[in-house]
Amino acid sequence: MQWLTAFTSSAKPFLISPSLLSIFPTPKPTFPSSSSLSASRFPITLRLLSSFSAPSLSHASDDAFAGVLSNFSGVRLEETVPIDSVKVRLDSWISSRVSGISRARVQSSIRLGLVRVNGQVVDKVSYNVKAGDEINCEISELRPLKAEAEDIPLDIVYEDDSVLVVNKPPHMVVHPAPGNPTGTLVNGILHHCSLPIVEYSNQEFLSDDDDELKNTSGDHATSEASVRPGIVHRLDKGTSGLLVVAKDEHSHAHLSDQFKLHTIQRVYISLTSGVPSQLSGRIEVPIGRDSNNRIRMAAIPGASNSKQARHAASRYKVIEILAGGGSALVEWRLETGRTHQIRAHAKYLGIPLLGDEVYGGTKSMALSLLRPRTPSDIHGQLLKLVSRFERPCLHALALGFKHPYTGKIIHFTCQPPPDFAKILSQLRKISTVKPSA
Predict the structure, then answer these.
(1) Active-site residue numbers?
(2) Could you tell me which residues are beta bridge partners of residue 283?
(3) Which of 139, 169, 187 corresponds to the end of one domain?
(4) N or C: at which end does the chain have fewer Cβ atoms within 10 angstroms?
(5) pLDDT confidence of residue 140
(6) Whole domain around residue 175: which residue ranges?
(7) Could you tell me the CA-to-CA distances from 107 to 27, 222, 289 in Å, in that order?
(8) Can you list the residues of the chain whose pLDDT is less than 50?
């Protein structure tokens, strides 16, 4: 493929860049076919009058209390909005008062009529609270979700009786969750594997879980392990590329252990806003929830490995400097698998991914970097180029793991989808430079 011509040819996978992408196409290998703790449930009431410093629920030491807090079912909040409070949405305000809860969970409670403002039920999540409002909220019970088989086209890279490797397209959610009950990768795989409807507990899918999904309960537990097929790891909705799925419990446990031990080989490529000051390096900065934006993670220097921030390490290397330094093609290799790890570390380096509005890779930032480096007669083309940024330009390029039954190390690669390739091609037309080794 023409867009890959920046890389030299080699038959060996996972070589040090810039020869990494030369492994296309790689022959697909063939092989012979081959309990969670229930949370205690009892009501908890938080009475916090005229105070902004709600006690952190995550620090509870009592086992039963911690069990309730792992899913927040039955938690009650009774509080008066302080006089000096600024205008804020009801769902945002409640989320800020119950440490660790997702906004989606709060929104569900509001819509179910479990929130009262000054004694009146309010079921509108965007309702603006005012100083002096008396808020009474009860967090709803977790409700089982149903994953139904759907005839969704899937790009199957490899399949045998125990594992399935899929090339996930951008904009597809991996598993059902509140707000995305259908059209997910799991729905498509259930149909592909001719499996029945699956019902499972929704254990806070959008919490601080790593992208390696656990099959045990706890502060970072999820319940995807109970789903057949078993989702072992995930990719963000906007991220394209390779993802492995376990088709039986042995494979799920085996692959989960590999993710836990960080022996899975994963390589990503991205297009960034600007070029890092050092063209290659290793970032070892903990990642935790951004205190200013709950849907975003943040690299937090100096933070300890705790519930607030967890150890995260990424290696990166600039493959090409594009558009006179307005952008770069960057390879990433993960040593850990934290939520939004590459996106958070890229932002920390000052090079947010193109199209990543959540982490600073906005269209305006892209234009501010590209315009000064390009002739004025192509600024119209730049506007059209930037308008095509509909997702973070991030692709899971390569995946390698030990087969759960044969024990053989197998590798897979897949080319980026057309949207990524087209943006890269247009940036190359402006200019491209390969850094010296």
Answers:
(1) 236
(2) 314
(3) 139
(4) C
(5) 82
(6) 156-209+224-432
(7) 47, 20, 19
(8) 1-70, 201-210, 212-228
